[in-house]
Design brief:
The complex is a heterotrimer of chains A (445), B (125) and C (520). Chain A is built from 13 helices and 15 strands. Chain A is an alpha/beta fold. Chain A folds into 2 domains: 118 residues, Aspartate Aminotransferase, domain 1 (Alpha-Beta Complex); 257 residues, 3-Layer(aba) Sandwich (Aspartate Aminotransferase, domain 2), CATH 3.40.640. Chain A has a 7-stranded mixed β-sheet with strand order 2-8-7-6-5-3-4, sandwiched between helices. A 4-stranded antiparallel β-sheet of chain A has the order 11-12-15-14. A two-stranded parallel sheet of chain A has the order 1-13. The relative contact order of chain A is 0.15. In chain B, 20% of the residues lie in helices and 37% in strands. In chain B, strands 1-2-3-9-8-5 form a 6-stranded antiparallel β-sheet. A 3-stranded antiparallel β-sheet of chain B has the order 4-6-7. With 125 residues, chain B is of the alpha+beta class. The N and C termini of chain B lie far apart (33 Å). Chain C has 520 residues and is of the alpha/beta class. Chain C is built from 15 helices and 12 strands. Chain C starts with 73 loop residues before the first helix and ends with a helix. Classes of the chains: A alpha/beta (445), B alpha+beta (125), C alpha/beta (520). At the A-B interface, loops of A face loops of B.
């Protein structure tokens, strides 16, 4: 077996040194009748070539985003990732290192986490960011729990524009912890009056912008209403690139900001791994979940970095920890940070404008072709009405080399919104892609 | 003059009239390592004997501080929030945590005096 | 109140060798400033052209605040990260015997496979007809995980080990609720030696945690469990092999007792890598167990994630898996994403979990095959016992000299009388070119040193490690305190002041005032 260095002679010699006759003696604590008599009934080892052949065959049965005109978003977005990013995250010292518990020999990881935290905090215009969460949706669940700790209340209010999967993650966690959740009905055109629902028991209000249907929301009046009632505003985003152009949640009074960072530096990966961004106000640091990296000095007075405030974490507080989270999404955070380091503020703003310009172009094309765009505002994603079932339209358009978007019925199967389609348009989409979209949708309906 | 009593959990209470000043012993601060954060109770909170009164954190450990006897919190040492190092430097003096109005002074009899606590420490390790 | 794991977290004093170069660099060891210190706030390292003028549809919600982020050109950016990378120890650099963490070799084939466009470049919400190959891969991985554990079902979506634990405990809670006992069964038993995530997970979803003491031999005994069982007990959470590196010998009896009392048996699968292909949790009475794909099946740890924590479920819990799950759909497969007509308890995460990790894990599994997986477990246990045999004459073992599983646990008794602590010893190991073992965990053992060599280490590598350990031990016992107090001496940084970091948290870069003044 190519990954196992021992020869049979090595094994024999080592058993002799240990003082046992056979390897089985080392497993003597396992009840005899529970030991497998032989190999499990599954295939034997394969060469690299054979494994590659098997897996490539499976991969070949999927339609990759780059191979078609691609407009699928709703929480994960196809962006161009510079070649240097994926190359560098595969450096052995990043890829095969552990959580930086021995800071003297993990300054590489710690420094990029510190840089990442700074980038994220500035991006969302908040005081502090942590070293990342599993993804945006789990971060959203953790944000609600954090708000409960801060306010000592246990009732969350979710906007109808929040990604339905995110809302479902919050509901699952809250049901299990016996916390209350109110989810407003799907709010396709950002018309809900969420402020009217806030009361003195509300712990937090969770609002996404741009929302799942693409609308940009003004969080400022919601923040004011939250604060007047002693509640926190949790601002969510799933498209990090939007922050290059759209008002940042920190500018509008958000108390906790949580978002999906996949768009920057990370591939689509069929849903994961991604990277959750999580930021808050300075006064709430100690209630924040997840790892934090902080600056300090070493014994020689040189600047260095360590994981800090870890007494909030499970390995020390056990059942009193702020969260059960053990790991973060280190390598995806690194990819995010690298891509952001290339972009800079200047590049991100420009990239965001290109995204928006492309989406505006597609919306105009569709509107002139007689397709209804429901959004009054949007960044790089909007919702359209198809004639009839949008899922059927998507299947039909796929036959013409266009993956057109996410049918709302895929996310909200019983909402009676079966004719709505969420369409994303990023810098990767060309004018030809948009023309193909318009002709495909005409043909499909 | 105050008298000082210790618990087996290494809290002390220095008694002066009805008021007891609560903190952690020198042994405890030493065992915890550098204290980096102290979470204090709200003034007016009623504590049961042995109930959780405060949290003291070092870099690698977080520990509850329990009320040595029942009582009501009348004052907390807010300075510790900015300078937690005081707990290490002067645990029995400036590093105190809170003052409580002792509900029943008879309960103090169940605690150790300084000599008994020193003997108790010898039994640990 | 006292936690005996407290220890000095401030380095004693300055002691490093002065850097006698103009730059402060030493040959390959090059200092690297933060990207923010490089004053590149108005440049970018990507070629994106401004779009032609157009009227926006933002409704006046444009960003007003600064976006002050540095943008480096590609050569600058590449150099920055290459230099940073060289300040990290990694499994590719050398032996990384971090107990409980399983730092084994990460085959590069797995990286290549995960980056195939058919896996890496597909969207989670594409029409399912366009991702049948991805669903097949998930099904094939599921088949292996189910067979290797002899369980009934697997939920792939949890994002990491602790998230898998949460999924498993949620399934247990859902099952209890379906029996109408959710108001009465609220206690979860957890041994003191458990990973911190176990009690944290149980508490997160409203269970009361009650600890179970281990015996003098480091094992949990049925009598201690039975004493705590009753109609209020929802579950027990046991790690097996446990965190002391020992197999819980009486696990079958414990499982039976828990079942008889109406509870469920959650097994923390962190150490499953010791018994893959040798014994199956399903045969031991386990109801739910998460599998850390990043430990057992060698998906890279990546400096702290991403992980992946599928949870396998027994027949009694199989119906209570989270959404989405796979089902047969005619000739093909489909993801069931809705609660209609099933008892799924809800969703753990957006989408279907860590696909990138599924590909890597399956690539690892197919490469090993049933024979290679068994051999890997045997070699992992062999290596740990070899280290034990080579060190047990000096290093003290808390539970006597007996065979261990994939990791061997020493305590600090042998250091008594020296002025060297477990921490000092670990730091001295850094100077010898090794990553330290896990220290001060499990908490139940004073000054614990937990060594997990993994199956990836050759005999020569183990021998060098053993010799270095012995040499350091002799120095410690001889009173060569210098070597330890100042360690590590040769790493990119000396010991760091963690106290300062925690007392005055600096969690992001700020412009230095001096610079701000100079700029005016």
């Amino acid at each position: 077996m190519r990954y196992l260095p021992h020869t049979p002679q090595d094994r024999e010699d080592m058993l002799a040194k240990i003082g046992v006759a056979s390897i089985d003696d080392l497993f003597a604590d396992i009840p005899k009748d529970k030991l497998l008599p032989g190999l499990v009934d599954l295939p034997r080892r394969k060469s690299e070539m054979e494994v590659e052949r098997t897996l490539s065959a499976m991969a070949g049965r999927n339609v990759s985003a780059s191979s078609v005109a691609f407009f699928v978003g709703a929480g994960a977005y196809k962006h161009h990732v510079p070649a240097s990013v994926d190359h560098l995250i595969q450096r052995s010292e990043f890829l095969t290192s552990y959580t930086p518990y021995q800071p003297e020999i993990a300054q590489g990881t710690l420094q990029y986490l510190f840089e990442f935290q700074t980038q994220v905090a500035r991006l969302v215009a908040m005081d502090v960011a942590n070293a990342s969460m599993y993804d945006g949706s789990t971060g959203c669940g953790e944000a609600v729990l954090m708000a409960h700790r801060v306010t000592r209340r246990r009732k969350a209010l979710l906007s109808g524009g929040l990604h339905p999967h995110y809302a479902e993650v919050v509901r699952t966690l809250s049901d299990m912890a016996d916390d209350a959740v109110t989810t407003l009905p799907p709010d396709v055109q950002a018309q809900e009056d969420i402020v009217a629902q806030i009361d003195k028991e509300t712990s937090c209000v969770v609002v996404q912008s741009p929302d799942v249907f693409g609308n940009i929301r003004d969080l400022e009046p919601i923040a004011e209403a939250c604060h007047a009632n002693g509640a926190l505003l949790i601002a969510v985003f799933t498209e990090a690139v939007s922050l290059g152009l759209v008002k940042a949640p920190g500018e509008m009074g958000a108390d906790i900001v949580v978002g999906e960072g996949q768009s920057i530096g990370n591939a689509l990966n069929f849903g994961g791994p991604y990277v959750g961004l999580f930021a808050t106000r300075e006064k709430y640091i100690r209630q924040m979940p997840g790892r934090l990296c902080g600056e300090t000095v070493d014994a020689n007075g040189k600047r260095g970095f360590v994981l800090t405030l870890s007494t909030r974490e499970q390995h020390i507080r056990r059942e009193k920890a702020t969260s059960n989270i053990c790991t973060n999404s280190g390598l995806c955070a690194l990819a995010f940070s690298m891509h952001m380091t290339l972009l800079g503020g200047v590049g991100l703003k420009r990239l965001a404008r290109v995204n928006h310009a492309n989406a505006v172009k597609l919306a105009a094309l569709l509107e002139s072709a007689g397709v209804e765009v429901l959004n009054r505002t949007f960044f790089n994603e909007f919702t359209i009405r198809t004639k009839g079932d949008s899922a059927a339209a998507v299947e039909a358009m796929a036959q013409r080399g266009v993956l057109a978007g996410v049918p709302v019925s895929r996310l909200l199967p019983r909402a009676g919104l079966d004719d709505l389609l969420i369409v994303a348009n990023t810098e990767v989409n060309t004018d030809e892609d948009r023309t193909a979209f318009v002709s495909a949708i005409k043909a499909a309906q | 003059m105050s008298t000082i009593r210790y618990t087996k959990d290494h809290e002390y209470i220095a008694v002066d009239g009805d008021i007891g000043t609560v903190g952690i012993s020198d042994h405890a601060q030493h065992a915890l390592g550098d204290v980096v954060f102290v979470e204090l109770p709200a003034i007016g909170k009623k504590l049961a004997a042995g109930g959780e009164a405060a949290v003291v954190e070092s870099v690698k450990a977080a520990s509850e501080v329990y009320a040595p006897v029942a009582g009501e919190v009348v004052e907390v040492n807010a300075a510790l929030e900015d300078t937690p190092a005081t707990v290490n430097e002067d645990p029995l003096g400036a590093g105190w945590f809170m003052k409580i109005r002792i509900a029943d002074k008879g309960a103090l009899d169940g605690l150790m005096d300084e000599a008994a606590y020193k003997e108790f420490l010898k039994t640990l390790d | 109140m006292l936690n005996n794991q407290g220890r000095s977290t401030q380095p004693a004093e300055a002691h490093g060798a002065a850097r006698e170069t103009f730059t402060g660099n030493r040959a390959l060891d090059i200092e690297e400033s933060l990207i923010f210190d490089q004053n590149r706030f108005d440049t970018t390292g990507v070629d994106v052209d401004e779009p032609a003028p157009f009227s926006d549809r933002l409704g006046g919600m444009s960003r007003a605040s600064e976006l002050e982020l540095p943008g480096l050109s590609e050569p600058e950016m590449v150099r920055h990260y290459v230099r940073l990378s060289r300040k990290n120890y990694s499994i590719d650099t050398g032996m990384f015997p971090l107990g409980s963490c399983t730092m084994k070799h990460n085959p590069r084939l797995n990286e290549k496979m995960a980056r195939l466009p058919g896996f890496g470049d597909v969207h989670p919400l594409q029409p399912q007809s366009t991702v049948q190959g991805a669903l097949m891969l998930m099904q094939e991985l599921s088949r292996w995980l189910i067979e290797l554990t002899n369980m009934s079902a697997v939920a792939l979506s949890p994002k990491a080990g602790a998230h898998g634990e949460l999924a498993g405990m949620m399934a247990i809670k859902a099952a209890i609720a379906s029996r109408g006992e959710d108001q009465t069964r609220k206690t979860v038993l957890v041994p003191d030696s458990a990973h911190g995530t176990n009690p944290a997970t149980a508490a997160l979803i409203g269970f009361d945690v009650q600890s179970v003491p281990a015996g003098e031999d480091g094992l949990v005994h049925p009598a201690a469990v039975k004493e705590k069982l009753g109609p209020h007990v929802a579950a027990i959470m046991l790690t097996n092999p446990n965190t002391c590196g020992l197999f819980e010998r009486e696990i079958v009896e414990i499982a039976a007792a828990v079942h008889e009392a109406g509870g469920y048996f959650y097994c923390d699968g962190a150490n499953f890598n010791a018994i893959v292909g040798i014994a199956r949790p399903g045969d031991l009475g386990v109801d739910a167990m998460h599998i850390n794909l990043h430990k057992t099946f060698s998906t890279p740890h990546g400096g702290g994630g991403p992980g992946s924590g599928p949870v396998v479920l027994s027949e009694r819990l199989a119906a209570f898996a989270p959404l989405p799950f796979l089902a047969k759909d005619g000739e093909g497969l489909k993801l069931v994403e809705e609660r209609d007509g099933n008892q799924a308890f809800g969703r753990m995460t957006a989408f279907q979990g860590q696909m990138g990790m599924y590909v890597r894990a399956l690539s690892y599994i197919l490469s090993h095959g049933s024979d290679g997986l068994r051999q890997a477990s045997q070699d992992a246990v062999l290596n740990a016992n070899y280290v034990r045999a080579c060190l047990s004459d000096i290093f003290s073992q808390p539970f006597g000299d007996r065979a261990c599983m994939h990791e061997v646990l020493f305590d600090e008794t042998w250091l008594k009388g020296t002025h060297v602590s477990t921490l000092d010893f670990a730091k001295a190991l850094i100077d010898e070119g090794f990553h330290p073992m896990t220290v001060y965990f499990p908490l139940v053992v004073k000054g614990a040193m937990l060594i997990e060599p993994t199956e990836s280490e050759s005999r020569a590598s183990l021998d060098l490690f053993v010799m270095a350990m012995r040499d350091l031990a002799f120095r410690a016992l001889r009173g060569d305190e210098e070597r330890f107090a100042k360690a590590p001496r040769f790493s990119p940084r000396a010991r760091l002041d963690e106290t300062r970091a925690a007392r005055n948290p600096v969690l992001k870069w700020k412009k230095r005032e001096a610079w701000a003044e100079a700029a005016e």
